[in-house]
Design goal:
By secondary structure, the chain is an alpha/beta fold. The protein contains six helices and 16 strands.
Length: about 260
């Protein structure tokens, strides 16, 4: 595959603008200001501590949204829901597509669709995710693998998940150039993680030895327990500092190989 023209811009939390070869995609849209929030499908009330680096208006036209799940407010908030109808296709879980309707398209794990624009195409494949330890029912979640020439050869967005047999299967099937880890070691309901902490991120680094790594969803909410700085420090201690690239909110990060 030729060196891709790929740029990431961290809006905040799990929200990242992905620009590749004319395509513009957004992960888990969250644009509401700081405050106390409770989603319609969650019993947990969350405290948002930081707002987005970019407004919805500054995001502009989108070809698609990659929505890991619709039922947690820190992955889809009020402003994010309002954005969805104007964003081309909203890829998400099958259950989420039923709740959202409209332009939402549900995908089962490892199901692939082709996103086309101006005679160009991008493969969008849903990937397995487990949002918490076994025994915790946090609802359906998916990640996404993007492919330029074949499924999964460009970028893997983990979505809200721990490292488990499903994410390991993604590594066996695909060889992305970049992995976007949803980290933060979230603890919204007690002393157990609902998203990746440093141990999971190290597993991913081992499983994707040729991929660059970035980490998101590690700031902006009170239930997140591990910051990007802490994760970077762990990687440095394991002599893996070169594998993890820092993302600064609101600052485009061009990537090439």
């Amino acid at each position: 595959m030729a060196a891709p023209n790929l740029t990431l811009t961290l809006v905040g939390g799990p929200t990242v603008l992905i620009e590749y070869d004319g395509f513009r995609l957004l992960t888990d849209p969250t644009f509401d200001p700081p405050g106390e929030y409770q989603g319609a499908y969650s019993p947990v009330r969350h405290r948002k501590t930081d707002g987005p680096a970019l407004s919805v208006e500054r995001i502009g036209k989108l070809d698609a949204v990659l929505l890991s799940h619709d039922h947690h407010f820190d992955n889809l908030d009020n402003a994010g829901r309002a954005l969805l109808p104007h964003a081309g296709t909203a890829y998400t879980t099958n259950s989420g597509a039923q709740r959202l309707g409209g332009n939402a398209l549900g995908l089962a794990p490892f199901e692939t669709r082709v996103l086309e624009s101006e005679r160009k195409k991008l493969f969008v494949t849903a990937t397995p995710a487990r949002h918490g330890p076994i025994g915790v029912d946090a609802g359906d979640v998916v990640g996404f693998a993007l492919g330029a020439e074949q499924p999964g050869d460009l970028l893997y967005v983990t979505g809200d998940t721990l490292w488990f047999e499903g994410t390991a299967e993604v590594a066996r099937r695909f060889s992305p150039k970049l992995v976007v880890l949803f980290t933060g070691a979230a603890e919204p309901r007690g002393r157990f993680h609902m998203t990746m902490g440093s141990e999971d991120a190290l597993e991913a680094a081992h499983a994707f030895p040729d991929a660059a790594l970035v980490a998101v969803h590690n700031e902006g909410w009170g239930h997140l327990r591990e910051s990007q700085d802490q994760l970077l420090d762990v990687f440095a201690k394991f002599n893996l500092a070169a594998r993890l690239t820092r993302l600064e909110k609101g600052k485009p990060l061009p990537l090439s190989w």
